[in-house]
Amino acid sequence: MDRKRRLILVFLCAAALVVVAIVQYTNSKSDTAAASASKPKAGYPAPVIDLPNLQDETVTVGGKSDQIQLINFWAAWCGPCELEAPDLQSAFEKYGDQIAFRGVNSTKYDRERDARNFVDEQKLTFPILMDREGDATDEYKVKSYPTTFVVDKNGTIVERIEGVMTEEDVARIVKEYANT
């Protein structure tokens, strides 16, 4: 009788573990989907945030504007950010009169001195903003770098791009959205 009870107990414990594993797996999938769905994405209003530039002057990102906005979140320690910097600078030189470039350094997760050195080394001349408290990074739900948002003149996100932007990507964006 003891052996029979042990087998039943082992079977019940194994069944309970299987049920717990299934519940955990199901919850983790729905958490991932919910987190992804909560990201600002195309069709949603771009959060409006004031950030200081390198001269500590306040610049607004998001919201309505006379130009479409390209808001690029980056960090000095980010290898892909280093790869895209020359293309963004070149695109700014070509299209800066048609699109408002905003480079947002996620300073809360970076070092400001490193960010300033990065800007100098890359010879970036488009506006660089410092997200010292991490508010913009949090509001835009940026989890990887680089992440770029294209915001139309009405303040609506039309694209969220995770990964390296090329000059050709910016040319496409200008062609598609600048005259709308």
Automatic annotation (TrEMBL):
The keyword Disulfide bond applies. Keywords: Disulfide bond. Pfam families: AhpC-TSA. GO terms for molecular function: antioxidant activity; oxidoreductase activity. Residues 40-179 form the Thioredoxin domain. InterPro entries: AhpC/TSA, Thioredoxin-like_sf, Thioredoxin_CS, Thioredoxin_domain, Thioredoxin_ResA/DsbE_sf. Gene3D superfamilies: Glutaredoxin. The keyword S-adenosyl-L-methionine does not apply. SUPFAM superfamilies: Thioredoxin-like. PROSITE patterns: THIOREDOXIN_1, THIOREDOXIN_2. This is Peroxiredoxin.
